[in-house]
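From the shared-data thread, chain only:
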Amino acid sequence: MKYFRHVSVASVVLCLVTLAGCSGTGQAISTVTVESKNHTFEVVAKGEIMATEEVRIGVPSGVNMSFEIQWLIPEYSEVSKGQVIATFDDAVVLTEIEKMELQMDQQELEYENFIRNNQTGRTQISHNSMRVDGETEIAVRYEDIDTSAFSQQEIIDALENIEYLEVQDQFYEWQADSHERRVNAESQKLQADLDITNQDIERNQKALEVMQLKSPDDGTFVYAHVGWGNQKVAPGQTMWPGRRIGSLPVRGKVNAEIHVLEVDAVGIEEGQKVNFRIDSDVTREFTGVVTDVQRMARSLDREDPTKYRIVRADFDNIEPDLMRVGSSFTATIITGQLSDVILVPQHAVFFDQDKPYVWVYSDGPEPEMRHIELGRRSPTLVEITSGLISGEKISLIAPATASV
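Structure, as tokens:
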């Protein structure tokens, strides 16, 4: 989209004299003769109709994962409630589910093997404990028989064996208890891993249910802006839960966004009148009023460094069938209406330490410097409120011999 500016000069009170003659130095000087007349300052720019109320449509927020846009219904399409307006790529989700299911199978097998191995270990501890109990019982019986039949050394060995068996029994009791605690802790960890994997599978299966985004109501679907400048959502972009993907503007709830070149935004203020011609019907003209002027200029396209001031305006009357969101228009902003004034080109005004002056031809062949006072301005013209009278001739350029 190409943006431009235009200032009406049909009523400009200037009679351009090309090459008014040669000065004493032989230099050709361009001059104008100023006259006092009426004039209207105008700034003309392109813009776009925007929504002031809309139904927001975003990526489902119930699933904590990213979504890649696979398809979008064309922007400004008329949609019905429940109609699919966007689809997301489910290949990643399906792959993730397969990976999680394989991981769950491996975790279940690991859990089963762990339980089986620990049952074997528990059985071995039980067998050792039973063996010690049996040996202890035999040793105690051996202690109760007639000691006269054995030597003193044999009796001492038997007593030591009983003590040893008691220590072994205590050890196997501790081992059984320790084994039980370790098995419980490890099984809880394995079960927790299984639960996490199962939750991941459920999360991805839930994501499959929202791979199609449907319109919440009837209306015109408008893409959302993302990133920098005027970039909008598009297939292939990755979106996160809750991010806006588009909207359904409320019918008749619109205003105007005017894109004014930074160099042309001189004198634009809130409350000024605006005339509109919508591109879809240039035979009709609508009116409105400026409601906001952004103070900082910005680029509208990351590939185009040209800067614009964004001006917002309200329409005096809205026709919903014609004033659709996204429609472009040409706006003429009335920045000033002057009566009986003297205007000169901006480049004919010079400055000496912020004091404006012009070069005036009076009696002699050389122009004379004269200080002036300035009034309203446009991108090309400036009002002279004091210092010039109608009929005087001024130079458009400074004389070569001029010194301030």
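The longest helix spans residues 152-208.
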